[in-house]
Amino acid sequence: MDRFSAYLLVRRHLRRPDSRNQALTVEAVMEQIASHLDQVPHRWGVLGLLSQLDLEYSEQNPGTRGVTARQQAELEGLDPSEAIHLERWCRHLRQAPGPRAADALAPVELGLLLSTILAEHLQPGGSKRSLAHDLELMRGRGDTEGNHLDLTLDQLGIEVEAAAEITLEALNRIAQDLR
Predict the structure, then answer these.
(1) Which helix (H) or strand (E) element contains residue 124?
(2) Residue 89, SS3 per DSSP
(3) Other beta carbons within 10 Å of 40
(4) CA nearest 128: which of 168, 171, 159?
(5) I want to staple 52 with a disulfide (CB 3.0 to 4.6 A). Which of 23, 37, 102, 154 is the partner?
(6) What is the pLDDT of residues 86-129, one digit of tens each?
(7) Rounded Cα distance, 70 and 137, in Å
């Protein structure tokens, strides 16, 4: 699926501007992570965009998070082998992370997990130092989200400083795009 088709699908399913901006932010962070890991930014970006497809629907139906995104993306032409990452990412997002969960996650799913956490909590306009500080605070909380952050950074081999830089680049890019 190309980016334009993915964006049209997101526009059709996400009615609120903040939900659309969330999808665009996850896309931008995914592309930056993919570049950092020498992966294909376009592919990861499209999956990041589509990962938010059922964001509004799942507010009333939390158990469907990821399943609906996968089904809709497949109906619109996303390759089923890529679409499955959307559903599996959501399954891991809902469960507490641990060594077995880490082994089961593909790099693109780890990227989705990391992108979602970063996009939900970090704002544009910060400095690399302040973003790194925020990430360290998130890691040290000891809750599921902090544990997911630890897991993804460790599994992807990304240091906190690099994650802050990746995030800052993505957030600044999306802030320019949204003007």
Answers:
(1) none
(2) helix
(3) 13
(4) 168
(5) 23
(6) 888 777 666 666 655 555 567 888 888 888 888 776 666 667 88
(7) 32
Angle at Cα 130 formed by Cα 129 and Cα 133, nearest 5°?
90
Query: Under a CB-based contact definition with an 8 Å cutoff, are residues 51 and 68 in contact?
Result: no
**Token pair in block for residue 51:** 């990962």
Rounded distance, CA 76 to CA 56, Å? Answer: 19
Residue type, position 26, single letter: V
**Token pair recorded at residue 115:** 């992108």
Amino acid at 40: V
- 92 neighbors 147 (Cβ within 8 angstroms): no
CA dihedral 29, 32, 34, 40 (to 10 degrees): 110
**In whole angstroms, what is the distance from residue 122 CA to residue 135 CA?**
9
Q: Which two tokens stand for residue 6?
A: 């993915």
Task: Say how far apart CA 78 and CA 31 lie, in whole Å.
Answer: 18
CA pair distance 159, 132, nearest whole angstrom: 10
Q: What is the mean pLDDT of residues 131-158?
A: 85
Q: For residues 10 and 15, what is the distance between their CA atoms, to the nearest angstrom?
A: 9
* Helices assigned H by DSSP within the chain: 3-13, 17-36, 41-50, 57-60, 67-75, 80-94, 99-104, 107-121, 128-139, 144-156, 160-177
Instruction: Single out the residue of 113, 109, 124 nearest to residue 164, CA to CA.
Output: 124
